[in-house]
Amino acid sequence: MQVFNNVSAYAVWKSYNSNVTSLRQSMSKLSSGTRIAQAGDDPAGLAMSERLRAQYRNSSVAALNIENNVNFLQTADSWAQKIQDILGRMAELSIMANDSTKATVDRNNLQREFEQMQKEIQRITSGATAAAKFNGLYLFRGGSGVAMLTQDGVQGGKISIQIGPDSNQIFTEETMNLTNSNFAIIGSYAKYSYGTVNMTALGSTFYRVKWASIICGAQLSISVQSYAQAAVDKLNLGIDYISSLRAIIGGEMNRMNQTLSGLRNYEENSRAAESRIRDVDVAWESTQLSKYQILTQLGTSMLAQANALPNSVLGLIQR
User: 10 Å Cβ neighbour count for 127?
Assistant: First the structure.
């Protein structure tokens, strides 16, 4: 029987203190929803979860980049559709003008509308005041679409977009050049000469068509019937040219949508993996909480009993 050192009370206190610490940890996990509140809880798991967390957060931002690029492409496609509609109307006017029964005044009136259609395409595509823009970027002036500060032009290069969580996962594209200064050859057409007997082809002449010649009034006219006949061939080439550019835009949109779908799946799986490492299992932790609550209550009772043991010494002294 000892008084100075109550070993039993110390043993009970040690167990009680351990159970209280475990109870606090269990309550912290349930209240925070995570089983790793600090690095000491699971150092290896913390490192893995932080790496996975960075991956899915980066993926989420990259997905926003992709969605923004899809909107960029959709805007470009909408303007390209408008240009095709205008070219279609110009082709109709050309066919109307290719009619010898029309008077000169009729053909002049057709020419006036024809010129307005050309000016509208130039307004959409050309110059510092070009209407076709997305977030300040020119859609149809080529290069990177960024306006130069010192002169009426655009900076060279391409549009660059990060579409993944890691470096070098980049998608690049160059804006289309549909300005009135684009003299790229978009195709060629042939004019045939026929004989008077059985309409036998006697020869042909091929003409190359440049984009600028379609939208510049001085180079394309329907004021004379022979001009109108040539304009039909040129405008058909222009419509095909815009269609080929829209096919590129459509392909890029589909590519971006496929990339976005894959990136969302990657983000989902990264989140799931990080959740298995870091998130608390509420059912299991609730069971642990109940266990430590009971052990703590038992420890309190046993500590009271252990503290009462030295009182038995008084019985020996009193007798």
Answer: 15
pTM over 0.70: yes
Task: Using alpha carbons, select from 214, 68, 211, 76 the residue that is nearest to residue 132.
Answer: 76
173 forms beta bridges with: 159
225 touches 96 (CB < 8 A) = no
Lowest mean pLDDT across 19-23, 30-34, 82-86, 172-176: 30-34
Residues 69, 255 contacting (CB under 8 angstroms): no
Would the pLDDT of 315 be above 80?
Answer: no
Domains contained in the chain, CATH given: 52-183+209-275 (1.20.1330.10)
Half-sphere exposure of 183 (CA within 13 A, CB side): 2
**Angle in degrees, 0-180, between the axes of helices 7-32 and 282-308, rounded to the nearest 10:** 160
- Amino acid letter, residue 37: A
Return d(Cα 307, Cα 6) in angstroms, integer. Answer: 8
Q: How far is CA 16 from CA 22, 301, 308, in A?
A: 10, 10, 17
66/170 Cα distance (integer angstroms)? 11
Burial class (CB within 10 angstroms; exposed 0-12, middle 13-18, buried 19+) of 92: middle
